[in-house]
UniProtKB/TrEMBL annotation:
GO terms, molecular function: DNA binding
Domain Core-binding (CB) residue range list: 56-143
Domain Tyr recombinase: 173-350
Record-given protein name: Recombinase XerD
One GO BP annotation of this record: DNA recombination
Keywords recorded for this protein, A-Z: DNA recombination, DNA-binding
The keyword DNA-binding is annotated on this UniProt entry: yes
């Protein structure tokens, strides 16, 4: 990665009391290693965007912040990088500065101005809160790890819109849940090994789209029969999942002679599939399967359908929670409750109507 002469990234991580002595000249090697790792984690384009929009000091802290073990998920790192760039671009446009010196230029009132701007753009509440959480995390890291004399300018109760429901600001029931007949139509719409494999991972394994695209061939343990697949779940925790015979057949057909690298790759570029491409696959299958509103059939819809179906079949909540990788049982239960809330509420209303009718009949001629 190259940078302009007046904008060379490279702020060094300040040593902490417990850190071992660093030999002379090794700091640049550390910086290079951090950048190389981030290229693998978030991609060159994101790293270039950060280098272009941020001043040298902020960029150096962001490098180490994104590389911290507190941010183990690649999906989280990529989201945080995008959020910082989004705020930095607004800051440069609003202040007229060449680079965004966020660590010294952002204050309570500045964040308030950004919050008003994001609201005027119609950004979703979830998007605004995620950006603000990223900023808050960056400032806390700069203050604690780098010992910088900065104050966190983010005050979530003031700057962030409330998330009114368990669906992160969306109306209850926003996550579509398919009938099993629709799911069967999706399986029949699969035309190749990749289609079948993506379906197996999203529905029968209940993986998130970010977990699916992050899979590497090295995650597959073939010393057991059937093979075991290691999956890094949200938050960085690893779990092992046993693949079905059908999934193994589709996987072997799809991989062919490939023995390393990402599991899912774009057929033309050979690069790792991203989440947007997985969404395109599920929408294509929905169109081919004749499902209504196919544009709304996303990977999360398949996952939500799998979770809801298991709970409908009476599977223990705690087991489904672990299978889905949810930190809280309330999240798992929320899928089922949102699906059945209409039927449940209708039954309660019908009960009141019946009771009222009985009471009215009891009045007789009065």
């Amino acid at each position: 990665m190259t940078a302009s002469p007046d904008h060379r990234p490279g702020t060094q991580l300040a040593p902490v009391a417990s850190a071992p002595p660093v030999r002379a000249g090794s700091a640049h090697e550390v910086e290079a290693a951090v950048r190389d790792q981030l290229v693998a984690d978030i991609g060159t384009a994101r790293l270039e965007a950060l280098a272009t929009t941020l001043d040298r000091a902020t960029f150096g802290v962001v490098l180490h912040w994104l590389s911290s073990y507190q941010r183990r998920s690649r999906d989280t790192k990529r989201g945080y990088a995008d959020d910082v760039v989004r705020v930095a671009e607004w800051f440069v446009a609003a202040t007229g500065r060449r680079h965004a010196d966020l660590l010294t230029g952002l204050h309570f009132d500045t964040v308030t101005a950004w919050s008003l701007y994001a609201r005027s753009r119609g950004d979703a509440a979830r998007t605004q809160r995620r950006c603000l959480s990223a900023l808050s995390s960056l400032f806390e890291y700069a203050r604690r790890a780098h010992r910088l004399a900065v104050e966190n300018p983010v005050h979530l109760p003031t700057h962030a819109p409330p998330l009114g429901t368990s669906t992160d600001g969306r109306p209850p029931g926003a996550t579509r849940v398919l009938e099993l007949s629709d799911v069967a139509a999706l399986t029949q719409a699969c035309s190749g090994a990749e289609d079948h494999l993506v379906f197996e991972l999203l529905f029968t394994q209940g993986l998130r789209e970010s977990e699916v695209v992050s899979l590497d061939i090295d995650n597959l343990d073939r010393t057991t029969v059937p093979p075991l697949l290691s999956v890094q779940r949200k938050g960085g925790r690893w779990v092992r999942r046993r693949l079905s015979d059908a999934a193994v057949r589709h996987l072997d057909t799809y991989l062919g002679e490939r023995g390393s690298g990402p599991v899912l790759v774009h057929p033309r570029t050979g690069l790792r599939r991203d989440r947007h491409q997985i969404i395109s696959i599920t929408r294509r299958l929905a169109r081919r399967g004749g499902l209504p509103q196919p544009q709304k059939v996303t990977p999360h819809v398949l996952r939500a359908t799998a979770i809801t179906t298991l709970l409908d079949r009476g599977k223990p909540l705690q087991e489904v929670q672990e299978w889905a990788g949810h930190a809280h049982a309330s999240t798992t239960r929320g899928y089922w409750e949102r699906r059945h809330s209409v039927q449940r509420d209708a039954a309660l209303s019908s009960s009141l109507i019946a009771d009222l009718a009985d009471a009215t009949a009891g009045l007789g001629g009065r």
